[in-house]
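dumping these here so i dont lose them again. two proteins, back to back, each one seq then C-alpha coordinates. dont judge the mess
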Amino acid sequence: MLELRVLVDNNTLIDRYFHGEPGVSYYLQDGGTGILFDTGYSDVFIRNAEKMGIHLLDLEFVVLSHGHLDHTWGLYHLIKRYTEARMEKVDCDNPTLVAHPSAFLTRAVDGIPEIGSLILEDKLSGHFNMRLSREPMWLTDNLIFLGEIERTNDFEAMMSIGRILRDGTEEDDYVIDDSALVYTSSEGLVIVTGCSHAGICNIITLQSSSLSLTTRV
Protein backbone atom coordinates (compact mmCIF):
# COMPACT_ATOMS: atom_id res chain seq x y z
CA MET A 1 0.00 0.00 0.00
CA LEU A 2 1.25 3.46 -0.89
CA GLU A 3 1.88 5.94 1.90
CA LEU A 4 2.25 9.64 0.98
CA ARG A 5 3.36 12.35 3.40
CA VAL A 6 3.60 16.03 2.53
CA LEU A 7 7.03 17.38 3.44
CA VAL A 8 6.48 20.88 2.02
CA ASP A 9 3.68 23.02 0.70
CA ASN A 10 2.64 26.59 1.37
CA ASN A 11 0.49 25.72 4.39
CA THR A 12 1.13 24.04 7.73
CA LEU A 13 -1.29 22.61 10.25
CA ILE A 14 -1.92 25.17 12.97
CA ASP A 15 -1.23 22.73 15.82
CA ARG A 16 1.98 21.30 14.37
CA TYR A 17 5.23 23.27 14.16
CA PHE A 18 6.23 22.44 10.62
CA HIS A 19 7.66 24.91 8.12
CA GLY A 20 5.97 25.97 4.90
CA GLU A 21 7.10 27.72 1.73
CA PRO A 22 5.90 28.27 -1.85
CA GLY A 23 7.23 24.90 -2.95
CA VAL A 24 6.36 21.20 -3.05
CA SER A 25 7.93 18.03 -1.71
CA TYR A 26 6.28 14.69 -0.94
CA TYR A 27 7.63 11.50 0.59
CA LEU A 28 6.12 8.30 -0.79
CA GLN A 29 6.67 4.78 0.44
CA ASP A 30 5.52 1.79 -1.58
CA GLY A 31 6.36 -1.31 0.40
CA GLY A 32 10.05 -1.00 1.20
CA THR A 33 10.75 1.60 -1.51
CA GLY A 34 11.22 5.22 -0.41
CA ILE A 35 10.62 7.93 -3.00
CA LEU A 36 11.13 11.69 -2.71
CA PHE A 37 8.89 13.55 -5.15
CA ASP A 38 10.27 17.08 -5.66
CA THR A 39 12.52 18.92 -3.21
CA GLY A 40 10.87 22.31 -2.72
CA TYR A 41 12.77 25.59 -2.73
CA SER A 42 15.05 25.25 0.31
CA ASP A 43 16.00 22.81 3.08
CA VAL A 44 12.52 22.99 4.60
CA PHE A 45 11.65 19.50 3.32
CA ILE A 46 14.64 18.07 5.21
CA ARG A 47 13.70 19.82 8.47
CA ASN A 48 10.09 18.69 8.23
CA ALA A 49 11.14 15.13 7.35
CA GLU A 50 13.28 15.01 10.49
CA LYS A 51 10.29 16.06 12.61
CA MET A 52 8.22 13.31 11.00
CA GLY A 53 10.91 10.70 11.62
CA ILE A 54 11.46 10.18 7.88
CA HIS A 55 14.98 9.02 7.00
CA LEU A 56 16.10 10.57 3.70
CA LEU A 57 19.46 8.81 3.53
CA ASP A 58 18.00 5.54 2.29
CA LEU A 59 15.83 6.79 -0.56
CA GLU A 60 15.67 4.62 -3.64
CA PHE A 61 14.32 7.34 -5.94
CA VAL A 62 14.25 11.12 -6.19
CA VAL A 63 11.62 12.09 -8.77
CA LEU A 64 11.17 15.60 -10.16
CA SER A 65 7.79 16.68 -11.49
CA HIS A 66 9.50 19.45 -13.51
CA GLY A 67 12.46 21.81 -13.41
CA HIS A 68 11.13 25.00 -11.77
CA LEU A 69 12.92 26.45 -8.75
CA ASP A 70 10.15 25.67 -6.24
CA HIS A 71 10.56 21.97 -7.03
CA THR A 72 14.34 21.64 -7.61
CA TRP A 73 16.31 24.13 -5.53
CA GLY A 74 16.15 21.79 -2.55
CA LEU A 75 18.45 19.42 -4.47
CA TYR A 76 21.39 21.53 -3.28
CA HIS A 77 20.46 20.86 0.36
CA LEU A 78 19.84 17.17 -0.28
CA ILE A 79 23.30 16.82 -1.80
CA LYS A 80 24.78 18.60 1.22
CA ARG A 81 22.94 16.14 3.45
CA TYR A 82 24.40 13.17 1.57
CA THR A 83 27.91 14.65 1.52
CA GLU A 84 27.92 15.36 5.26
CA ALA A 85 26.61 11.87 6.00
CA ARG A 86 29.44 10.32 4.00
CA MET A 87 31.98 12.52 5.78
CA GLU A 88 30.66 11.16 9.07
CA LYS A 89 30.77 7.56 7.78
CA VAL A 90 26.97 7.29 7.99
CA ASP A 91 25.36 4.81 5.62
CA CYS A 92 23.88 6.66 2.66
CA ASP A 93 22.35 5.16 -0.46
CA ASN A 94 22.94 6.60 -3.93
CA PRO A 95 19.35 7.17 -5.13
CA THR A 96 18.17 7.16 -8.72
CA LEU A 97 17.07 10.59 -9.93
CA VAL A 98 14.12 10.33 -12.32
CA ALA A 99 13.06 13.30 -14.46
CA HIS A 100 12.37 14.48 -17.99
CA PRO A 101 15.57 15.27 -19.97
CA SER A 102 14.58 18.97 -20.17
CA ALA A 103 14.24 19.37 -16.40
CA PHE A 104 17.71 20.91 -15.96
CA LEU A 105 17.76 23.44 -18.79
CA THR A 106 18.17 27.17 -18.06
CA ARG A 107 14.88 29.05 -17.69
CA ALA A 108 14.18 32.78 -17.37
CA VAL A 109 11.11 34.96 -16.90
CA ASP A 110 10.43 38.70 -16.54
CA GLY A 111 14.10 39.66 -16.23
CA ILE A 112 14.88 36.90 -13.72
CA PRO A 113 17.82 35.04 -15.27
CA GLU A 114 17.22 31.63 -13.68
CA ILE A 115 14.00 30.04 -12.43
CA GLY A 116 15.14 26.50 -13.24
CA SER A 117 17.46 24.08 -11.47
CA LEU A 118 20.63 25.62 -10.06
CA ILE A 119 22.49 22.31 -10.50
CA LEU A 120 23.05 20.98 -14.00
CA GLU A 121 22.78 17.38 -15.12
CA ASP A 122 26.52 16.71 -15.22
CA LYS A 123 26.95 17.81 -11.59
CA LEU A 124 23.92 15.83 -10.44
CA SER A 125 25.31 12.68 -12.04
CA GLY A 126 28.06 12.67 -9.41
CA HIS A 127 25.48 12.26 -6.64
CA PHE A 128 22.62 10.33 -8.26
CA ASN A 129 22.06 7.50 -10.68
CA MET A 130 20.46 9.52 -13.47
CA ARG A 131 17.42 8.16 -15.32
CA LEU A 132 16.12 10.94 -17.56
CA SER A 133 13.27 9.77 -19.73
CA ARG A 134 10.55 11.11 -22.00
CA GLU A 135 8.93 7.67 -21.85
CA PRO A 136 6.88 6.31 -18.96
CA MET A 137 8.92 4.32 -16.46
CA TRP A 138 7.81 1.90 -13.76
CA LEU A 139 9.50 2.61 -10.42
CA THR A 140 7.83 -0.21 -8.49
CA ASP A 141 5.29 -2.87 -9.42
CA ASN A 142 2.53 -0.33 -8.75
CA LEU A 143 4.06 3.13 -9.28
CA ILE A 144 4.85 4.68 -12.67
CA PHE A 145 6.54 7.91 -13.75
CA LEU A 146 4.59 9.19 -16.75
CA GLY A 147 7.43 10.89 -18.62
CA GLU A 148 6.46 13.54 -21.18
CA ILE A 149 2.74 14.34 -21.12
CA GLU A 150 1.23 14.72 -24.58
CA ARG A 151 -0.83 17.92 -24.87
CA THR A 152 -3.92 16.54 -26.58
CA ASN A 153 -6.62 19.11 -25.79
CA ASP A 154 -7.05 22.79 -26.66
CA PHE A 155 -7.98 24.19 -23.25
CA GLU A 156 -4.91 23.39 -21.10
CA ALA A 157 -1.20 24.19 -21.15
CA MET A 158 -1.61 26.71 -23.97
CA MET A 159 0.45 29.56 -22.46
CA SER A 160 4.22 29.63 -22.07
CA ILE A 161 5.97 30.46 -18.79
CA GLY A 162 8.99 32.57 -19.66
CA ARG A 163 11.76 31.28 -21.90
CA ILE A 164 13.95 28.18 -21.94
CA LEU A 165 17.43 27.70 -23.41
CA ARG A 166 17.49 24.57 -25.58
CA ASP A 167 20.52 23.64 -27.72
CA GLY A 168 21.82 27.21 -27.53
CA THR A 169 18.52 28.77 -28.65
CA GLU A 170 15.96 30.56 -26.49
CA GLU A 171 12.35 29.57 -27.04
CA ASP A 172 9.00 29.93 -25.29
CA ASP A 173 8.80 27.57 -22.35
CA TYR A 174 5.69 25.37 -22.29
CA VAL A 175 7.21 23.24 -19.51
CA ILE A 176 7.18 20.06 -21.57
CA ASP A 177 9.16 18.40 -18.77
CA ASP A 178 6.13 18.54 -16.46
CA SER A 179 5.20 14.99 -15.43
CA ALA A 180 3.42 13.03 -12.71
CA LEU A 181 3.29 9.72 -10.86
CA VAL A 182 0.45 7.20 -10.98
CA TYR A 183 -0.16 4.50 -8.36
CA THR A 184 -2.29 1.46 -9.16
CA SER A 185 -4.26 0.24 -6.17
CA SER A 186 -7.08 -2.25 -5.56
CA GLU A 187 -9.40 0.73 -5.20
CA GLY A 188 -8.35 2.45 -8.41
CA LEU A 189 -5.66 4.83 -9.67
CA VAL A 190 -4.02 7.62 -7.68
CA ILE A 191 -2.32 10.47 -9.57
CA VAL A 192 0.40 12.46 -7.79
CA THR A 193 1.33 15.75 -9.46
CA GLY A 194 3.39 18.85 -8.77
CA CYS A 195 1.93 21.88 -10.57
CA SER A 196 0.24 20.00 -13.44
CA HIS A 197 1.61 22.46 -15.99
CA ALA A 198 0.86 19.81 -18.62
CA GLY A 199 -2.82 20.04 -17.70
CA ILE A 200 -4.60 17.66 -15.35
CA CYS A 201 -6.91 16.41 -18.11
CA ASN A 202 -3.91 15.65 -20.33
CA ILE A 203 -2.31 13.80 -17.41
CA ILE A 204 -5.45 11.74 -16.80
CA THR A 205 -5.65 10.89 -20.50
CA LEU A 206 -2.03 9.73 -20.65
CA GLN A 207 -2.04 7.60 -17.50
CA SER A 208 -4.60 5.16 -18.86
CA SER A 209 -2.41 4.29 -21.85
CA SER A 210 0.87 4.28 -19.88
CA LEU A 211 -0.17 1.59 -17.44
CA SER A 212 0.12 -1.08 -20.12
CA LEU A 213 3.86 -0.46 -20.48
CA THR A 214 6.26 -2.98 -18.97
CA THR A 215 9.51 -0.98 -18.76
CA ARG A 216 11.05 -1.29 -15.31
CA VAL A 217 14.00 0.58 -13.74
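---- next one ----
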Amino acid sequence: MTSGFGLGLRTQHYNDFLAGPQPVEWLEVISDNYMVDGGKPLAMLDQIRANYPMAMHGVSMSIGAINGLNKDYLRKLKTLEQRIEPMWVSDHLCWTGAHGRNMHDLLPLPYTHEALQIIKRNVEYAQEVLQRPLVLENVSSYVEYKSSEMTEWEFLTEVCQATGCRLLLDINNIYVSAFNHGFSPTSFIEGVPAESVIQFHLAGHLNNGDHLIDTHDHPVCDGVWDLYRQALLHFGYVPTMIERDDNIPSLSELISELDMARSIANDVLNSKIAV
Protein backbone atom coordinates (compact mmCIF):
# COMPACT_ATOMS: atom_id res chain seq x y z
CA MET A 1 0.00 0.00 0.00
CA THR A 2 1.33 3.39 -0.99
CA SER A 3 1.67 6.32 1.34
CA GLY A 4 0.76 9.91 0.71
CA PHE A 5 -2.11 11.90 -0.68
CA GLY A 6 -3.94 11.48 -3.96
CA LEU A 7 -6.50 12.94 -6.33
CA GLY A 8 -9.17 11.53 -8.58
CA LEU A 9 -7.93 11.57 -12.18
CA ARG A 10 -10.29 13.65 -14.33
CA THR A 11 -10.09 14.39 -18.06
CA GLN A 12 -9.69 18.14 -17.38
CA HIS A 13 -6.29 17.42 -15.81
CA TYR A 14 -4.86 14.89 -18.28
CA ASN A 15 -2.53 17.46 -19.85
CA ASP A 16 -1.30 18.66 -16.45
CA PHE A 17 -0.21 15.16 -15.48
CA LEU A 18 1.34 14.53 -18.88
CA ALA A 19 3.23 17.84 -18.86
CA GLY A 20 5.37 17.01 -15.84
CA PRO A 21 5.52 15.77 -12.25
CA GLN A 22 2.78 16.99 -9.92
CA PRO A 23 2.86 17.02 -6.09
CA VAL A 24 0.46 14.08 -5.91
CA GLU A 25 1.58 10.66 -4.68
CA TRP A 26 -1.13 8.60 -6.39
CA LEU A 27 -4.28 8.84 -8.49
CA GLU A 28 -7.69 7.19 -8.31
CA VAL A 29 -9.50 6.39 -11.57
CA ILE A 30 -13.19 5.68 -12.10
CA SER A 31 -12.96 2.09 -13.33
CA ASP A 32 -16.12 2.30 -15.46
CA ASN A 33 -14.60 5.06 -17.64
CA TYR A 34 -11.79 2.77 -18.79
CA MET A 35 -13.50 -0.60 -19.15
CA VAL A 36 -13.29 -0.36 -22.93
CA ASP A 37 -11.30 -2.15 -25.63
CA GLY A 38 -9.29 0.86 -26.76
CA GLY A 39 -9.42 4.54 -27.60
CA LYS A 40 -8.10 7.81 -26.17
CA PRO A 41 -9.10 7.26 -22.52
CA LEU A 42 -7.01 4.08 -22.28
CA ALA A 43 -4.11 5.66 -24.18
CA MET A 44 -4.08 8.58 -21.74
CA LEU A 45 -4.40 6.23 -18.79
CA ASP A 46 -1.40 4.19 -19.92
CA GLN A 47 0.78 7.30 -20.23
CA ILE A 48 -0.18 8.72 -16.84
CA ARG A 49 0.01 5.32 -15.16
CA ALA A 50 3.69 5.16 -16.10
CA ASN A 51 4.38 7.93 -13.57
CA TYR A 52 1.79 7.49 -10.81
CA PRO A 53 0.52 4.56 -8.74
CA MET A 54 -3.21 4.17 -9.16
CA ALA A 55 -6.29 2.91 -7.36
CA MET A 56 -9.39 1.72 -9.21
CA HIS A 57 -12.78 2.96 -8.02
CA GLY A 58 -15.99 1.63 -9.56
CA VAL A 59 -19.57 2.85 -9.49
CA SER A 60 -21.57 0.02 -11.08
CA MET A 61 -20.64 -3.30 -9.47
CA SER A 62 -23.91 -3.24 -7.52
CA ILE A 63 -22.55 -5.41 -4.73
CA GLY A 64 -26.05 -5.53 -3.23
CA ALA A 65 -27.64 -7.13 -6.30
CA ILE A 66 -29.99 -9.84 -5.12
CA ASN A 67 -29.49 -11.92 -8.28
CA GLY A 68 -25.70 -11.85 -8.12
CA LEU A 69 -23.05 -9.81 -9.89
CA ASN A 70 -22.83 -9.10 -13.60
CA LYS A 71 -20.21 -11.52 -14.90
CA ASP A 72 -19.45 -9.44 -18.00
CA TYR A 73 -18.86 -6.38 -15.82
CA LEU A 74 -16.46 -8.32 -13.61
CA ARG A 75 -14.64 -9.70 -16.65
CA LYS A 76 -14.02 -6.18 -17.97
CA LEU A 77 -13.03 -4.99 -14.51
CA LYS A 78 -10.50 -7.82 -14.25
CA THR A 79 -9.05 -6.92 -17.66
CA LEU A 80 -8.53 -3.32 -16.54
CA GLU A 81 -7.08 -4.47 -13.21
CA GLN A 82 -4.51 -6.59 -15.04
CA ARG A 83 -3.65 -3.66 -17.30
CA ILE A 84 -2.90 -1.00 -14.69
CA GLU A 85 -2.07 -3.18 -11.65
CA PRO A 86 -3.76 -0.88 -9.11
CA MET A 87 -2.97 -0.65 -5.42
CA TRP A 88 -6.55 -1.75 -4.71
CA VAL A 89 -9.95 -2.08 -6.40
CA SER A 90 -12.94 -0.44 -4.75
CA ASP A 91 -16.66 0.05 -5.25
CA HIS A 92 -19.63 1.03 -3.10
CA LEU A 93 -21.71 -0.79 -0.53
CA CYS A 94 -24.97 -0.26 -2.39
CA TRP A 95 -27.14 -1.46 -5.25
CA THR A 96 -27.36 0.41 -8.55
CA GLY A 97 -30.33 -1.13 -10.35
CA ALA A 98 -32.50 -4.15 -10.95
CA HIS A 99 -33.63 -6.46 -13.76
CA GLY A 100 -30.59 -5.62 -15.86
CA ARG A 101 -31.09 -1.84 -15.68
CA ASN A 102 -28.44 0.44 -14.21
CA MET A 103 -29.99 3.48 -12.54
CA HIS A 104 -26.55 5.16 -12.31
CA ASP A 105 -27.08 5.99 -8.67
CA LEU A 106 -25.66 4.57 -5.45
CA LEU A 107 -28.75 3.30 -3.66
CA PRO A 108 -28.58 2.41 0.06
CA LEU A 109 -29.18 -1.08 1.40
CA PRO A 110 -31.36 -2.27 4.25
CA TYR A 111 -29.01 -3.29 7.05
CA THR A 112 -30.57 -6.68 7.68
CA HIS A 113 -29.20 -10.16 8.17
CA GLU A 114 -30.82 -11.20 4.89
CA ALA A 115 -29.03 -8.42 3.00
CA LEU A 116 -25.83 -9.34 4.79
CA GLN A 117 -25.94 -12.85 3.32
CA ILE A 118 -26.37 -11.41 -0.20
CA ILE A 119 -23.44 -9.03 0.28
CA LYS A 120 -21.21 -11.80 1.63
CA ARG A 121 -21.97 -13.99 -1.38
CA ASN A 122 -21.33 -11.21 -3.88
CA VAL A 123 -18.14 -9.97 -2.20
CA GLU A 124 -16.72 -13.49 -2.10
CA TYR A 125 -17.49 -13.97 -5.80
CA ALA A 126 -15.92 -10.62 -6.76
CA GLN A 127 -12.80 -11.45 -4.74
CA GLU A 128 -12.58 -14.85 -6.40
CA VAL A 129 -12.61 -13.18 -9.83
CA LEU A 130 -10.21 -10.38 -8.91
CA GLN A 131 -7.95 -12.59 -6.78
CA ARG A 132 -7.56 -9.79 -4.24
CA PRO A 133 -9.60 -8.27 -1.40
CA LEU A 134 -12.37 -5.98 -2.59
CA VAL A 135 -12.54 -2.51 -1.03
CA LEU A 136 -16.02 -1.17 -0.20
CA GLU A 137 -17.00 2.46 0.33
CA ASN A 138 -19.81 3.70 2.57
CA VAL A 139 -22.33 5.73 0.57
CA SER A 140 -24.21 8.89 1.50
CA SER A 141 -27.95 8.34 1.92
CA TYR A 142 -31.19 10.27 2.17
CA VAL A 143 -33.66 7.57 3.23
CA GLU A 144 -33.53 4.73 5.74
CA TYR A 145 -35.24 1.33 5.75
CA LYS A 146 -37.61 0.52 8.59
CA SER A 147 -36.51 -3.11 8.21
CA SER A 148 -32.87 -2.40 9.16
CA GLU A 149 -31.69 -4.54 12.07
CA MET A 150 -28.32 -2.88 12.71
CA THR A 151 -26.43 0.34 12.08
CA GLU A 152 -24.45 0.94 8.91
CA TRP A 153 -21.15 0.61 10.76
CA GLU A 154 -22.24 -2.65 12.36
CA PHE A 155 -23.20 -3.92 8.92
CA LEU A 156 -19.83 -2.90 7.46
CA THR A 157 -18.04 -4.62 10.32
CA GLU A 158 -19.96 -7.84 9.71
CA VAL A 159 -19.11 -7.76 5.98
CA CYS A 160 -15.40 -7.21 6.66
CA GLN A 161 -15.17 -9.93 9.28
CA ALA A 162 -17.01 -12.46 7.11
CA THR A 163 -15.21 -11.84 3.79
CA GLY A 164 -11.86 -10.19 4.54
CA CYS A 165 -12.78 -7.23 2.33
CA ARG A 166 -11.40 -3.79 3.17
CA LEU A 167 -12.97 -0.35 3.62
CA LEU A 168 -12.71 2.96 1.81
CA LEU A 169 -14.06 5.33 4.44
CA ASP A 170 -15.64 8.38 2.83
CA ILE A 171 -15.52 11.05 5.53
CA ASN A 172 -17.89 13.35 3.65
CA ASN A 173 -20.44 10.56 3.22
CA ILE A 174 -20.38 9.86 6.95
CA TYR A 175 -20.93 13.56 7.62
CA VAL A 176 -23.81 13.80 5.11
CA SER A 177 -25.60 10.64 6.28
CA ALA A 178 -25.13 11.51 9.96
CA PHE A 179 -26.73 14.91 9.40
CA ASN A 180 -29.59 13.48 7.31
CA HIS A 181 -30.43 10.63 9.70
CA GLY A 182 -29.43 12.09 13.04
CA PHE A 183 -26.76 9.62 14.13
CA SER A 184 -23.34 10.39 15.60
CA PRO A 185 -20.56 10.50 12.98
CA THR A 186 -18.09 9.74 15.77
CA SER A 187 -19.97 6.51 16.55
CA PHE A 188 -19.61 5.52 12.90
CA ILE A 189 -15.86 6.17 12.89
CA GLU A 190 -15.29 4.35 16.15
CA GLY A 191 -17.57 1.49 15.12
CA VAL A 192 -15.74 0.13 12.08
CA PRO A 193 -12.69 -2.16 12.32
CA ALA A 194 -9.59 0.03 12.17
CA GLU A 195 -7.49 -2.70 10.55
CA SER A 196 -9.86 -2.84 7.56
CA VAL A 197 -9.68 0.85 6.57
CA ILE A 198 -7.15 1.43 3.79
CA GLN A 199 -8.30 4.71 2.20
CA PHE A 200 -10.13 7.95 2.99
CA HIS A 201 -12.20 10.08 0.63
CA LEU A 202 -12.72 13.79 1.26
CA ALA A 203 -15.25 15.76 -0.76
CA GLY A 204 -17.77 18.58 -0.71
CA HIS A 205 -21.56 18.57 -0.53
CA LEU A 206 -24.59 20.84 -0.93
CA ASN A 207 -26.24 22.14 2.25
CA ASN A 208 -30.00 22.59 1.79
CA GLY A 209 -30.64 23.56 5.38
CA ASP A 210 -32.63 20.58 6.60
CA HIS A 211 -30.65 18.02 4.56
CA LEU A 212 -27.33 17.60 2.81
CA ILE A 213 -26.72 16.22 -0.68
CA ASP A 214 -23.43 14.59 -1.65
CA THR A 215 -22.59 16.49 -4.85
CA HIS A 216 -18.78 16.41 -5.05
CA ASP A 217 -18.92 19.89 -6.58
CA HIS A 218 -17.83 21.98 -3.60
CA PRO A 219 -14.62 22.28 -1.59
CA VAL A 220 -14.41 20.27 1.64
CA CYS A 221 -16.30 22.14 4.38
CA ASP A 222 -15.10 22.86 7.91
CA GLY A 223 -17.31 20.18 9.44
CA VAL A 224 -15.82 17.48 7.21
CA TRP A 225 -12.30 18.69 7.99
CA ASP A 226 -13.13 18.38 11.70
CA LEU A 227 -14.44 14.85 11.16
CA TYR A 228 -11.25 14.03 9.23
CA ARG A 229 -9.29 15.07 12.30
CA GLN A 230 -11.35 12.67 14.41
CA ALA A 231 -10.75 9.88 11.90
CA LEU A 232 -6.99 10.49 11.99
CA LEU A 233 -6.98 10.38 15.77
CA HIS A 234 -8.83 7.07 15.70
CA PHE A 235 -7.25 5.29 12.71
CA GLY A 236 -3.85 6.93 12.46
CA TYR A 237 -2.37 7.41 9.01
CA VAL A 238 -4.60 6.34 6.09
CA PRO A 239 -3.98 7.26 2.41
CA THR A 240 -6.27 10.19 1.66
CA MET A 241 -7.61 11.80 -1.50
CA ILE A 242 -9.80 14.71 -2.57
CA GLU A 243 -12.76 13.77 -4.77
CA ARG A 244 -14.27 16.32 -7.17
CA ASP A 245 -16.71 15.31 -9.91
CA ASP A 246 -18.42 18.56 -10.96
CA ASN A 247 -17.47 22.24 -11.09
CA ILE A 248 -13.95 20.87 -11.39
CA PRO A 249 -11.37 23.58 -10.71
CA SER A 250 -7.79 23.85 -11.90
CA LEU A 251 -5.36 21.18 -10.78
CA SER A 252 -3.46 23.78 -8.75
CA GLU A 253 -6.62 24.61 -6.79
CA LEU A 254 -7.24 20.93 -6.02
CA ILE A 255 -3.62 20.49 -4.97
CA SER A 256 -4.03 23.43 -2.57
CA GLU A 257 -7.01 21.62 -1.03
CA LEU A 258 -4.98 18.42 -0.88
CA ASP A 259 -2.23 20.36 0.91
CA MET A 260 -4.82 21.22 3.55
CA ALA A 261 -5.36 17.50 4.12
CA ARG A 262 -1.60 16.99 4.38
CA SER A 263 -1.28 19.80 6.91
CA ILE A 264 -4.13 18.51 9.06
CA ALA A 265 -2.77 14.95 8.98
CA ASN A 266 0.71 16.10 9.94
CA ASP A 267 -0.59 18.23 12.81
CA VAL A 268 -2.90 15.53 14.18
CA LEU A 269 -0.48 12.65 13.84
CA ASN A 270 2.50 14.60 15.20
CA SER A 271 0.48 15.72 18.22
CA LYS A 272 -0.67 12.15 18.72
CA ILE A 273 2.94 10.95 18.75
CA ALA A 274 3.93 13.74 21.15
CA VAL A 275 1.23 12.69 23.61
